[in-house]
């Protein structure tokens, strides 16, 4: 392991806004995010596969009256968002280091108000369908954790994953599709995101890829 990555891991252990294995809160945080971590009773917004946390931190800047949690398994990526949030004094940001399939170990039923799935791995092979973050397996994981009427946002550059997700949501009677577009930056919803982009979104946009977006909720 490189010295730089090792240093980041050590800083994650000290940073209060990083919840990970080995810390006391890691086993106690379920159902306690607002009370214990944020110490303020605000809507809880979660970003899955947050990477370096650009989007999580960006939303936290725009909405100080909400609490934001970025979830990712890569500690060196989480370090970036964590460090920026601390340097800016953003107390409404935290990062959870875990695998997304274990999400229900860290959130109570109905605890999440809003969920973002931003540029996940498309896993294009048919045999990998269950690994897609919008597959039936994961939708069934998210549903009980969402507050009634809670919104789920999904953004991708991948046409196949977008088409797969759109078709799946239209077929599921427990999902209500609220908006969708295969060209987000030409849509009426672009202003709602305040120009906040993830690293991957910037990279794909610069290459001329159209960004796809949809939002839905569980009935």
Describe the structure.
The protein has helices at 3-14, 33-38, 54-62, 75-87, 136-142, 159-171, 199-206; strands at residues 18-19, 43-48, 66-72, 93-97, 112-118, 146-156, 175-181, 212-218. The protein is globular, with a radius of gyration of 17 Å. The protein is built from 7 helices and 8 strands. The protein has one domain: Vaccinia Virus protein VP39 (Rossmann fold, 3-Layer(aba) Sandwich), CATH 3.40.50. The model has no long low-confidence stretch (mean pLDDT 93). The longest helix is centred in the middle third of the chain and has 13 residues, at 75-87. Strands 1-4-3-2-5-6-8-7 form an 8-stranded mixed beta sheet, sandwiched between helices. It is of the alpha/beta class.
Short description:
With 219 residues, the chain is an alpha/beta fold. It has seven helices and eight strands, in the order αβαβαβαββαβαβαβ.
């Amino acid at each position: 392991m490189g010295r730089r990555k090792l240093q980041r891991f050590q800083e994650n252990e000290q940073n209060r806004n990083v919840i990970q294995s080995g810390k006391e809160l890691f086993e106690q945080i379920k159902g306690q995010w607002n009370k214990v971590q944020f110490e303020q009773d605000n809507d809880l917004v979660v970003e899955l596969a947050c990477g370096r946390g650009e989007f999580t931190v960006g939303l936290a800047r725009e909405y100080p009256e909400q609490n934001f949690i970025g979830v990712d398994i890569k500690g060196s990526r989480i370090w970036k968002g964590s460090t920026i949030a601390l340097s800016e004094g953003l107390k409404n940001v935290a990062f959870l280091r875990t695998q997304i399939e274990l999400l229900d170990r860290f959130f109570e039923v109905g605890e999440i108000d809003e969920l973002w799935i931003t540029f996940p791995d498309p896993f294009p092979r048919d045999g990998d369908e269950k690994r897609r973050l919008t597959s039936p397996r994961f939708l069934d994981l998210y549903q009980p954790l969402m507050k009634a009427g809670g919104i789920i946002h999904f953004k991708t550059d991948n046409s196949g994953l977008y088409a797969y997700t759109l078709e799946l949501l239209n077929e599921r009677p427990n999902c209500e599709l609220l908006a969708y577009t295969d060209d987000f930056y030409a849509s009426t919803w672009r202003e709602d995101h305040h120009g906040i982009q993830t690293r991957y979104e910037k990279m794909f946009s610069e290459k001329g890829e159209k960004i796809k977006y949809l939002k839905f909720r569980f009935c």
